[in-house]
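lol ok so funny story. i was supposed to be doing the assay writeup but got distracted and ended up predicting the structure for this chain instead. priorities right. anyway since i did it might as well share w the group, maybe its usefull for someone
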Amino acid sequence: MSSPKTPPSPRRRHIATDLVHAGREPAEQFGFVNTPIYRGSTVLYPTADDLANRRGRFSYGRRGTPTSLALESALKQITGGAGVVLTPSGLSAASVALLSVVKAGDHILMTDSVYEPTRHVCDTVLARLGVTTQYFDPLIGAGIAEMIRPATRLVYCEAPGSQTFEMGDIPAMVEAAHARDALVAIDNTWATSLGFDGHSHGVDLVIEAGTKYLGGHADVNLGFVSAAPSAWKSLQGTHGTLGQCAAAEDIFLALRGLRTLALRLQRHQASALEVCDWLAGRPEVSRILNPMLPTDPGHALFKRDFTGGCGLFSIVLKPAPREAVAAFLDALELFGMGYSWGGYESLAIPFDAKAYRTATSWQPEGPTLRFHIGLDEPADLIDDLERGFAAMANAASRPEGEP
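and the output, tada:
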């Protein structure tokens, strides 16, 4: 007869260890380490009584499978939420979170630096449903209290801000919102729960695009929302009612990505800081937008509230013609040009946030570029950027109109 298992230690394990073990039940998978992909819609019941009473661990594919349960359980453990729902994309995760807490006549306070597609959801779908969205300066902090109305249901944050990387004071906004019975949500895709523990800072709904670092290989579309007890019942009900269902293959790939997430984030962050250090010395660069840097205005808040960052940041160039910026991008060999980020590959895109700012004015002194530093060797990426700056200088020196 085998001896009973030793009870687990009450000491909280490191999150890197949880990433390896969370959501895995090899004994239920014939000893195989990873939960396999369960594809299916129909779940059979052994008896008519079981069917009538929906008696069984699973009832219908859209409502969950062993594969989705494994990822939900793992993310619940990592985020510390009361429950987690999976969605087909980061944007759908944001949409489900919003719809789970608002009704006609409600008022939302939304950071002006929010991911632009989320802004579009508020200005179109929610507006048609009678929900009012008001945008606020991402640096407002405790001043958010002055904007909260009796009808304010939700304060929606993103820290740092999308593309422009403003670092807001999340605990101050949480305190102000909860004092007036409003919930707080955050898009936590940049830091992930490894870099910012939203629920321990009082956030009710933590949203993440698993498409990014959770997948980690630019081949997954996935989102998830982790809810505190204050928001879990409504989130779970809304998610089920809307028929949200992430793809089995994407869930499996996210589970695989989860196991190496800590190691990859360490490399992304370290490499990004090395590249930023080099960029800071370039004459073409006016400033770097990255709260991980001691020179960034948001660094003190980052150091206070965050335990880590990632490989994503932006730079503001000194004034340069559009053709010169295009020449810079076209000369890059290791940096791809494409949307999304969080994979192993390095990326560079130009952006202009002027068109989607209403509460604040975005007036950079020159063109702006967003970089994602992948898993390449930083020295090689620096060589690539040097090649780009040489092409930029060459294009800028040509007389206007000359090819």
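The longest strand covers residues 152-158. Confidence is low (pLDDT under 50) at residues 1-10.
back to the writeup now i swear
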